[in-house]
Every structure is written in structure tokens, then in C-alpha cells.
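We emphasize that the prediction below concerns an isolated chain of 81 residues; any contacts that depend on oligomerization or on bound cofactors are therefore not represented. The input was used exactly as deposited, without trimming of termini.
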Amino acid sequence: MEHRFLQLFVDGKWMGKKDRSISVDGVKYNMDEYAKAHGIELPEGKKQINTDVEEKHEDMERSHDSGHTDIDGDGNSESTE
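Result of the prediction step, given as a C-alpha cell string:
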């Protein structure tokens, strides 16, 4: 069962009401007490990491030294060296 109040955590930080109150079926609860009583693990302090993505970046596999040109002059684009 998905608990809607868990959507108020962003990167492990509570973004809901400062008093951490939630409403379940029209009844107001303290979120921490409600979670503890129902065995719900809060994502507090845990950053959500998307592990479904597997991208291979070819440019990270090779050295960046090859193919780069040397920079001459003082870095001023208006220089006439």
C-alpha cells in the first residue's frame, strides 16, 4: 500500500508541514508516531537514487588529452598573437 504522505519527502527531506502532521482518512496524526505504529520506514535522510538507468558514456572511457588543441596566448580572445 502506497502512503501518500511519503510523496512529501524530496531527496530524504520532509517538505510537508513543519509540525509533521498528516491526515489519514480525515484523522490528524503525527507522521513519526503514525509511521512507527504501522511499521512504515520513512525515507528521511536517504536520498532516492534511480538505479533503473544504465547509460554508458563513451567519453568517460577515454582520455580527454587526445584531440585537444593547445591554447596559445594569454586567453584573451582579442589578442593578436
